[in-house]
Amino acid sequence: MKKLINTAESVVDDALNGMAAAHPTLRIRDRVVYRAEGPRRGKVGLVSGGGSGHEPLHAGFVGHGMLDAACPGEVFTSPVPDQIIDATRAVDGGAGVLHIVKNYTGDVLNFEMAAELVEGVDVASVLVDDDVAVQDSLYTAGRRGTGATLFVEKIAGALAEEGAPLARVAAVAGEVDDRSRSFGIALTSCTTPHAGKPTFDLPETDVELGIGIHGEPGRARVPMASARELAGIAMEAVHGDLPLRGDLLVMVNGMGGTPLMELYVVFAEVAAFVRGKGARVARSLVGNYVTSLDMQGFSVSICLLDDPLTRLWDAPVETPGLRWGR
Amino acid sequence: MDTDVLVAWFAETARLVHRERERLTDLDAAIGDADHGSNLDRGFSEVARALATSPPDTPAQVLATAGATLIRRVGGASGPLYGSVFRQMGKSLTSPVTLAGFAAAFEEGVVAAERLGKAALGDKTMVDALVPASRALALAVRDGVGVREAFEQAARAAADGAKATIPLQARKGRASYLGERSVGHEDPGAASAALLMAALATVVA
């Protein structure tokens, strides 16, 4: 598999060097991506992180109105506690720091260790677990954090920017997670730089349902179908778990290797499904935001909005990956 | 058992993991995210380098260095989990090191990983190789067998435990997302734990 890399070992650092060169609003030190201007006194700091390979998540969401720092790990591997500790100390403006953690065993363990070890900073954390493909039971590691991570980072980021206290920012972040659900479908696997070959074989004739964002196989494999049918499968799974009602924030997210044109084809079907359930697409996002390297496919994420959440979603944001109103 | 044996254990583990990294990554590709081999290869070679650069004075220091290096350098779940095994072993191990003392410290290390990962025997994780190895060591101590035979029995128990994960459905870790589709594959964490025990048997052979 051809890749635009120098070496598999250096891919994460090489990409971070590129981000630093491209975006003067960012400052990158010891594998942590910060806002160049540093912490603001009295503002809650937002730190997230996770494996690399999901770009623009998380480093691309560092900036005004969103994250204060992101800790990128190796490809699909959570960051280590040292990175998270550095980030937490550096972004604390005296009002405490919120850790936004996707629910994977590795991410949870490393963020927990960091939160225990960092001293003198008030730390709260929110776990994102929006993926309805995983049954939330004693027999799994719990639902994965996927597309709704962007919703949590944007809305909590807006609230922190307004000067809300840590407990309130954490509570609203949790509320966004509670109101959000996602489901993903892959047309192909992805190829990690280290492995150099696709993580799983998926014939031309089939798709994987209920995939996560690490190229892991999904819950089931079914024959390839039209965008309408696939969007229907994803939306039925979401609607079956959290009935759609009222105003919705809807994201059709590309997994990294799917043309935007096809994502819009999917969005049209998703929007029709939403209307069919008597709900309304109040806000939308279409593009590659929470990706899985070069995987082809999409995920759909919805959040049940109310007026305060809509206002926070609309608030100005200025990051490499998301930017409006400023 | 002295400091050199434990240093050799990690050197041999690093060698085995490097040799088997593709197999570990392939196992992980089937039911996870295809990075177990490269992550552990990176982690244990860092451990070997750390132990070579600043040689520890005591067996407990070897384990503490190994644990801290894995936690600080690997990431993912396997870094903290393996790191906790060795860090706890380092805290529990008393000098001079006897087989009974090693077996007791190893058991506490395994318990630390079980607690951190909230995993139990049969969940299709590294615990499925570590716990049988720990039990084999305890039996060897009870039966008064020699160090070499004890470690061989532990290595066999770990290898058997890893193979026994094949028919299991994962209940913890990334493989649990697959539900029934995790059945029929060996758990990569159990496979790497078996390598760890094989390395131990090799260095005292």
UniProtKB/TrEMBL annotation, chain A:
One of its GO terms (biological process) is glycerol catabolic process. Residues 7-324 form the DhaK domain. InterPro entries: DhaK_1 (IPR012736), DhaK_dom (IPR004006), Dihydroxyacetone_Kinase (IPR050861). Pfam families: Dak1. GO terms for cellular component: cytosol. Keywords: Kinase, Transferase. NCBIfam families: dhaK1. This is Dihydroxyacetone kinase, N-terminal domain. It comes from Nonomuraea jiangxiensis.
Automatic annotation (TrEMBL), chain B:
GO terms for cellular component: cytosol. One of its GO terms (biological process) is glycerol catabolic process. GO terms for molecular function: glycerone kinase activity. InterPro entries: DhaK_L_YcgS, DhaL_dom, DhaL_dom_sf, Dihydroxyacetone_Kinase. The keyword Kinase applies. Keywords: Kinase, Transferase. It holds the Pfam family Dak2. Residues 4-202 form the DhaL domain. The keyword Kinase applies. It comes from the Bacteria. This is Dihydroxyacetone kinase, C-terminal domain. It comes from Nonomuraea jiangxiensis. The lineage of its organism: Bacteria, Bacillati, Actinomycetota, Actinomycetes, Streptosporangiales.
